[in-house]
Amino acid sequence: MDAQVLLNISNLHAGYGKIRALKGINLQVRQGEIVALLGSNGAGKSTTLKAISGLLLPEEGSIEWEGASIRGLAPHRIAERGVIHVPEGRRIFSGLTVLENLELGAFTIRKEKRLVKEGIEQAFALFPRLKERAKQLAGTLSGGEQQMLAISRGLMARPRLLMLDEPSMGLAPIVVQEIMAIIAEINRQGVTILLIEQNAKAALRLAHRGYVMETGRIIMEDEADVLYRDEKIVKAYLGA
Amino acid sequence: MNTLVQTLIDGLVIGAFYSLIALGYTMVFGIIKLLNFAHGDLYMLGAFIGYSLLSLVTGNGEGAAGLLGIAVVLLLTMTVVGVIGMGIERIAYRPLLLAPRLSILITAIGVSLILENGSMAIWGAQYQVYPLQLPQTGWSFGGAQLTYTQVAIIAISVLLMAGLQLFVRHSIYGKAMRAIALDQTASSLMGIDVHRVIALTFFIGAALAAGAGVMAGAYYGTINFMMGFIIGLKAFTAAVLGGIGNLPGAMVGGLLLGLIETAGTLVLGGSWKDVVAFSILIVILVCKPTGILGEKVTERM
Ligand SMILES: Nc1ncnc2c1ncn2[C@@H]1O[C@H](COP(=O)(O)OP(=O)(O)O)[C@@H](O)[C@H]1O
Ligand SMILES: [Mg+2]
Questions:
Q1: Cβ contacts of B105 within 8 Å, gap of 6 or more
Q2: How far is CA B258 from CA A48, A139, B14, B198, B277, in A?
Q3: Does A107 touch chain B (CB under 8 A)?
Q4: Phi, psi of A17, rounded to the nearest 5 degrees
Q5: Rg of chain A over CA atoms, in angstroms?
Q6: Please, are residues B228 and B123 in contact by the beta-carbon 8 Å criterion?
Q7: Do B40 and B238 meet the contact criterion of CB atoms below 8 Å apart?
Q8: What is the pTM of this model?
Q9: Tell me: the pLDDT tens digits for B129-186?
C-alpha cells in the first residue's frame, strides 16, 4: 500500500450559496486503486467530485493532483491533466451520434489521431453494442447503453484518474453486474478509479479501499473488505 | 414566365444574404440561447469596413479593384468583423452569461445602438456610394436577366455555407460547438474550453454577416448606418422560419424568405415587401414556433 498518492484532498469545504455541502473532507487516491466513496443520498459525494473536477469552486482546503494544486483551475484544464469526471446522470450528448460522443471524449488528445482511433477501437471492444450503434444518435440508446457510452467517452481521454458518479443508477441488476465487471477490467488495465455508488455492497466487492460520507463529512475510512464485512456499518450508513 | 424566372433569380440573391446573416443568429442562439439583436449591425459594419478597404484599393472607385482585390477585401473584412464579433461577446455578453436572460437581451440592443451610432460617427449619416463598378452584363433568357454579379454572389454564398456545414459536421471544433449547445457542463468535463468555442462561434457568425454586407454593398451600390436594422429582423425571421438553432434551417429559411418576399412584392407592390416578411414571422410563431425544419429542443445545430 505504498503506491504513489495521485490525488490528495485535505480539509475540503465547499457548498452552494448558504448550503454547506462539504465540511472538511480528507481523502487520498493512490496509483492503481479503486476507491469507493459511499454514503446515503445528499451526503456530499457528487459535490466532492464536482470540487475535484473544477465544476465547483471550494471555499477552503486543498486539492493536489500528482503533487500540484489543481484547486481553482477551470474544468477543461483539470481534464487536460488526466482527471476525468463521468458525472451523475451520464450526461451524454443525446443529439450527437455515439461515435461523435466518443470523439469528443478524446478532445484533450485530439491531435494524436492514432490514439483517438485506438481509443474508439478499445471502446468498441469493451462494449460491442456501441459499435453496432456507432452512427445512431446517443439519445436513442437504452439506459445501460448510455452508461456504457458515458464510461467509454470518459476513457477516450486516456485518464490517469477516472471518477464515476453512480454508474449503476437506474439500471437493471443484470446490467449493473456487467458495468461493475467492466469497471474492474478498466482498473486491471491500469486506470485508477474513484467510484461513487449507492449500491455499497457491489462497490465494496470491487474496491480496494472505501470512504463513508455523511452530511458533508467522512465518518469512516478503511480497506474495502473490512467495510464489506462490517454488517453494522453497511446497514447503518449504506442502506444495503 | 420571364417575370417568374426573374423573381426566382432576385429572390435567391436576397435570400442568400438572409441566409448568411440568419446563420449567425441561429448559431449564437444554439450555443448560448441569446437572440443577438446586434447581429444585423455586424452586416452593416461589414459593408462599411469593406467600403473603406475598397476605397483604398480602387482610389474611391476610379480604379478597378480586380477580382483578386475584391477577394482580399472580402476576406479581410470578414476577418476584422469576426474579431469585432468576438470582442462583443467577450466584453458585453460573457459577463452576463449567468445573469437573467433579460439582462443579456437588453445588452444586445445596447450593443446594436453602439454599433449603429459608432458607424454614423465614423462614416456619416448619409448614404455612401460603394466604390466598386460591377458588371451589369450576364445572360438573358426571354426577358429575364441573370448577371455575372448575381451568379458570383450566389456562388460565394453557397461556398461559405457549404464550408460552414462541413466545419460544423466534421471538424472536432464543430462537434464541440454542437456538444456545448447540448450540455456546457459535460463539454467542459471533456476538456473543451467552452468560452473559447463560444468565441469561435461569434467569430464565424460575424464573419458570415460581414461577407453578406460587402456583397450587398456591391450589389445595391449604396450603404447606410441603419442598413442592418431591418435586414437583422428579416434574418431573425429566416432563422425562426427554419427553426432557430438549426443550421440547415437558417440556410433554407433565408432562401425561402427571399423568394417569398420577392414574389410577394411582385404581386402586392414594392411597399408591401416588409409586411410580407414579418407576416411570415407572425404566422410561424403562432402556428409552428419550432420552424419548418424544427426539431426537438435537444437536437440543436
Ligand atoms: N446544485 C445544487 N444547489 C444547491 N444545493 C445542492 C446542489 N447540489 C447538491 N446540493 C446539496 O448539497 C448536499 C450534497 O449533495 P450531493 O453532493 O449531490 O450528495 P450525494 O451525491 O452524496 O447524494 C445536499 O444537501 C444537496 O441538497
Ligand atoms: Mg450524487
A1: B34, B35, B37
A2: 54, 35, 5, 29, 9
A3: yes
A4: 60, -120
A5: 17
A6: no
A7: no
A8: 0.92
A9: 998 888 788 888 878 889 999 999 999 999 999 999 999 999 999 999 999 999 999 9
Distance CA B19, CA B16 (A): 5
pLDDT in tens, B202-238: 999 999 999 999 999 999 999 999 999 999 999 999 9
Question: Is A88's Cβ below 8 Å from some Cβ in B?
Answer: no
What per-residue confidence (pLDDT) applies to B297? 45
Cα(A17)–Cα(A232) distance, integer angstroms: 35
Domain encompassing residue A182: 1-82+159-239
A85: nearest Cα among A35, A20, A154, A3: A154
Q: Is B178 on the interface with A (CB under 8 A)?
A: yes
Q: Give the residue from A128, A164, A50, A93 showing the smallest Cα distance to B179.
A: A93
CATH of the domain at A5: 3.40.50.300
Cell 485535505: give the residue: A10
- Does residue B160 fall inside a structural domain? yes
0.90 surpassed by complex ipTM: yes
Q: Does A105 lie in the same domain as A34?
A: no
List the domain range (segments joined by +) for residue B101: 2-287
Closest by CA position to A219, among listed A43, A15, A21: A43
Grid cell digits, residue B8: 426566382
Q: Which of A76, A100, A108 sits opposite B175 (nearest CB)?
A: A100
| Position B225, amino acid | F
SS3 B192: coil
**Residue bearing the CA closest to ligand 1, atom 4:** A16
3-class DSSP state for residue A50?
Answer: helix
Over range B95-100, report the average pLDDT: 92
Counting the structural domains of chain B, the total is 1
Q: CA triplet A151, A157, A158: central angle to 5 degrees?
A: 90
What stretches in chain A show pLDDT beneath 50? 1, 240
Measured between alpha carbons, how far is B261 from B253 in angstroms, rounded to an integer? 12
Question: With an 8 Å Cβ cutoff, are A108 and B300 in contact?
Answer: no
